[in-house]
Amino acid sequence: AVVPGDRLVGQGVVDPLSEAESELWRRRGVVGRWKPHRPLQWVQSGPAAARAALQFRERFLAFSHRMLGPGLAQAVDALCFNVRGDLSKEFQRDLRTTGTVHIVSASGLHAAVVAFAVFGLCCLLPIPRWLQLVLAAAMLALYAVAAGLQAPIVRSVALVAGLQSSYLWRREPDAASLTSFTALLFLMGEPWLAWDIGFQLSFATVLGLAAFAGGRPGGGSGADFVRRAACSLLRASVVASAVSAPLVAYHFGQVPLLSVASNLLIAFAVGPVVVLSLAAALLDPWLPAVSQAMALGAVAPLAEWLVGTIDWLGGWEATAPRLPEFGAGWLAAVYGSALLLWRERRRECDSSITE
């Protein structure tokens, strides 16, 4: 596999793009398709860390198929590394119908899960917070390489790392400002992303959550904390579904009405499947018994719940009605109206805290 930093040489011929490919690829600055006459030759290898990340992905794919079998392994591979080529057309249709296609696209959700796991491990070690941030950023960078350095995961890693770094400057993280700044940087480098559905959905969803989803559950304990966490999760699911619905309708011509319910039913399983399957694959060479127990005892049941829930809800095709085509001007009207609902949110402080 080719990694960033590799240099290859070869001879070939450049053919023009077909009419079907022309519009999509020309936006990305691609003007032709190169066909080599003979196999390429490596002149220089890229960083060893990048190659190790890709090798881990290959070991992970082999491990998941060996432990989980083809059916569940395909879903877990797509969930962890965006490997969607083996997913059946029926399952991909179910993902669109239920509004859960984002779980098999390496993005902000996956970057946040990996960052949370790394911070959890670092908290067990006697190391300063700044070093924890450095380790988390390094692990996120390696994960992005292993996931193929696709645009959604690169954007998400940059966003998560930027939000976490606010600690170093003794500032509250400003998701809306950082998201907008990150989007501008990417558009300056690759203007074609403005037409990319993944780019539009990821940034629109993050901005919507920053504006309307509220903050963390807050303090409290016991039943009060559980209630706050449940309300926060429900609100985030409603906001994410509402913000993404106009774009989904524009690009795919349908609106998944069960999106909120579907995401709530599978939300608790997505993070553990990603973290535990990655951990099991890491432990496999040294602790195969522990690795197998994690894969069969935890990952497999959670993956079966994910796949079964999506398959079941995806069978209700009537819950994703088809819509007639409409112009992009309607998107501006819908999102402009939504901005009128935004209100400044003040941070609540505990009155018992004194200076």
Give an overview in words.
It is a single chain. The protein is mostly helical. Helix content is 63%, strand content 5%. The chain is built from twelve helices and four strands. The protein has a two-stranded antiparallel ribbon with strand order 1-4. A two-stranded antiparallel sheet has the order 2-3. The longest helix has 34 residues, at 48-81. The relative contact order is 0.11.
Helicity, as a percent range: 55-70%
Number of E-state strands: 4
Continuous helix count: 12
Strand order of the largest sheet: 1-4
- Ends distance: 57 Å
Low-confidence stretches: 350-355
Strand residue content: under 5%
H/E topology pattern: EEHEEHHHHHHHHHHH
Q: Judging from the principal axes of the Cα atoms, what is the shape?
A: globular
- Roughly what is the average pLDDT, rounded to an integer? 82
Rounded radius of gyration (Å)? 22 Å
SSE class: mainly alpha
Main beta sheet: 2 strands, antiparallel
